[in-house]
Amino acid sequence: MEIKRIAVLGAGLMGSGIAQVCAQGGYEVKMRDIAENFVENGFVMIKKSLERFAKSGKLAEEEVTKILNRIEGTTDLGNAVSDADLVIEAAPEDMALKKTIFRELDDLCPSDTILASNTSGLMITDIASATTRPEKVIGMHWFNPPQMMKLIEIARGALTSDDTYDAILDLSVKIRKKPIPVTDGPGFFTTRYISFYLAEAIRLFEGGVAGIAEIDEMCKLGFNWRMGPIELADFIGLDTNLHILEYMHEETGDPRCAPPLILKKLVKSGYLGKKPGSRGGFYEYFGIPRQ
Length: 291
Fold this sequence. Notes:
Layout: E1 5-9, H1 13-24, E2 28-32, H2 36-55, H3 61-69, E3 71-74, H4 77-81, E4 86-89, H5 95-108, E5 114-117, H6 124-128, E6 137-141, E7 151-156, H7 162-174, E8 178-183, H8 190-206, H9 212-223, H10 229-236, H11 238-252, H12 261-268, H13 282-285
Parallel strand pairs: 1-2, 1-4, 2-3, 4-5, 5-6, 7-8
Antiparallel strand pairs: 6-7
Helix pairs in contact: 1-2, 2-3, 8-10, 8-11, 11-12
């Protein structure tokens, strides 16, 4: 099938970025969130991002307005998806929430609409079970920030059709991304891999092997990483890290997925990392100045 109209559910950092990339690729986009101020904030982020591209010479000035005009904001789910060829869901990582959304989409969307989830590792087969069209459901895991990161991790559910898979591969290439397929499973590849090494870094600190700042500094100097593992855990969100590890542990029983005790302690104390409403992350909890 040919994709012409795309609906993006969510206007936060990921949703607005996905909407921008799709509009830059020439697609008509409807960006939906649950409140008008969320939609407005999404447009603010998109405009700032496009203006940065224009200032750096990566985008012609006259293209900024054209791209913005391809995006329509709405709080009405029915309006957003009624004529969509593809819906990309970018809601929080909560299986119950995603199943509720996909159940609604199944009722509201045309029968041939592809339903994609931006989940970073919740099983697509499970999400698809909330619909009567599992062959049309697929994982399309984008990376932050979507405007800059090239990778899209493509996860097929147990019943995802070849036509759905091919359509998403084709779209990804057209919007100048690099789609790479993975097998459906808790965490896919990228989230499972990164969760293991972030958790291990936290365990090594917890075990007294090295300090927080020292672990981050060693990884940056020794491995040439731009951000240390504990800095990255704070950036992702400690509650998000905890939720992912708990989900993978529950689904697989793999002891490597068991969350470190100190991670649970910080989250229960309101230290969620670098995100709104948080007291801070590892650095703030332990009183360590950030570089």
